Amino acid sequence: QLRLVESGGGLGQAGGSLTLSCSASGFTSDYYGIAWFRQGPGKEREGIGCITNTPATPHMGDSVKGRFFVSIDHAKDTVHLQMGSLKPEDTAAYYCAAVQSRQHFVVERICALTLRPADFRDWGQGIQVTVSP
User: Fold this and answer.
1) Are 31 and 53 spatial neighbours (Cβ–Cβ below 8 Å)?
2) Tell me: the pLDDT tens digits for 15-35?
3) How many Å apart are CA 89 and CA 97, to the nearest integer?
4) Of 64, 36, 126, 128, which Cα lies nearest the Cα of 91?
5) Could you tell me what percent of the chain has a pLDDT over 90?
6) Pairing mode of beta strands 122-123, 92-101
7) What DSSP character marks residue 73?
8) Which positions ≥6 away from 85 have C-beta within 8 Å?
């Protein structure tokens, strides 16, 4: 069974940076994508970025493009979310989630085009990020 564990959250300052990590274990398919979602108070869960294992191309959501970046460390099966130019509105619970498939185009489509929470079966427990003004 796939297991995802987030780390690295906490308190950041506006204009600063934070890096979150998602450590994954137990993949059962050749192809997978790991995404980051966030959910602020009273808001819907928002997809902010995703990366597939091969090719390792990051896909970032419009709300964070240019400020956040997703990368993958294959040796450690870990995906990082590098957050820069933080804003108070980035305050949220951040989750990593995974989609797996034997077909690469399925993973690529979900990761690159749709990035919908319902398409991701496996989730981490979530980690809080709070950005102060």
Assistant:
1) yes
2) 999 999 999 999 999 999 999
3) 22
4) 128
5) 89
6) antiparallel
7) E
8) 15, 17, 67
